[in-house]
Amino acid sequence: MEMLQGRDLPDIWMFVRVVEAGSFSEAARRMGTTKANLSRAVARLEKTLATKLLNRSTRKLGLSEAGRAIFQHALHMVEQAQGIEALAAGMQAGPGGLLRVSASMAFGNTHLAGLLPAFLERYPDIRVVLTMTDRYVDLVEEGIDVALRFASRIDMQSAVARPLAPLHYVLVAAPGYLEKHGVPAGIEDLPGHRCLTFGTTGAPAIWEFVTGGERARVRVDGVMSANSSPSLRLAMLRGGGIALLPTFVVGEDIRRGEAVQLLPHIDPVGTFGDRIYAVYLENRFLPPKVRVFIDYLVERIGERPYWDAF
Does the keyword Signal apply (predicted)? Predict the structure, then answer.
């Protein structure tokens, strides 16, 4: 394999455009060039990398396994170049383009999807692709512009983590459950209650709390476990038991009186950390679409999230 040189950048650019267009002919039409020119550029890049990038057929164009990984890196290079162009042309005031966002299933469904319409109305030249998953997302490999993550701290070498909002937790139960089983007077009463725990093994859970400046741990046997906060919320609302949940999941239920916060003088320690971060690749020329999206989330959520209004 040869070393990539500056002269290879146009070939990388053309490779990205061919993949985005889905065919050589469509890419040629968009770029105002010929199919032959684009084909030669991709062939040169494949020779330089000693790797097949595209699987060609008469009806379909697809990425090879290596091509999929290389495309994400190439796309990042192209977007960085476009950021430099935008900066030089004084176009930073007009963000646009495709914005790829990743979030957890719970936060994406509960809040982020509802926040996007006002953002898109404010910035009509931006289009958003929202990917919701509870697994770790590699920004480069999967072509993600911004990932929303929960953590106590984030250590990264090639990415930036901007704090968006605090992440709080509460013990909650439905009024019907408390009428039937009573209200716990302290954390020492929790093992005697029906508890709904986060996890997949069904093993007893350890709930941790801060009380009087000290940390305390309580072992509870869950009558139901799930690896989904919204699922635990639904079971709790149906009278299934006591749950320890993030306030972004259950805050509105407390405000409406459909759930009751238990032991409010004690602070639960959640399993997902204590802050929501917006994580994006380090870039001196931060694309305007990324900057305005993160600014919008800070504006709409901030240090006093609306879901904590209860």
Answer: no
Tell me the CATH number of domain 97-165+274-308, given options 3.40.190.10, 3.40.50.300, 1.20.1600.10, 1.10.10.10. Answer: 3.40.190.10
| Nearest-angstrom CA–CA distance, 107 and 233 | 13
CB of 160 closer than 8 Å to CB of 290: no
Averaged pLDDT for residues 11-25: 86
Cα–Cα distance for residue pair 195/224, rounded to 1 Å: 7
Query: In which residue are the tokens 């999807």 written?
Result: 113
* pTM of full prediction above 0.85: no
Could you tell me how far CA 7 lies from the centroid of its own chain?
Answer: 36
Reading phi first (left if > 0) and then psi (alpha if -120 to 50, else beta), residue 178 is in alpha
How far apart CA 37 and CA 35 sit, in angstroms, is: 5
Q: pLDDT tens for residues 224-281?
A: 999 999 999 999 999 999 999 999 999 999 999 999 999 999 999 988 889 999 999 8
Give Cβ neighbours of residue 298 (< 8 Å, ≥ 6 apart): 162, 164
Domain 169-269: which CATH number of 3.40.190.290, 2.40.440.10, 3.30.200.210, 2.160.20.10: 3.40.190.290
Task: Write the DSSP string, 8-54.
Answer: GHHHHHHHHHHHHHTSHHHHHHHHTS-HHHHHHHHHHHHHHHTS--E
Asked if 243 and 173 touch (Cβ cutoff 8 Å), the reply is: yes
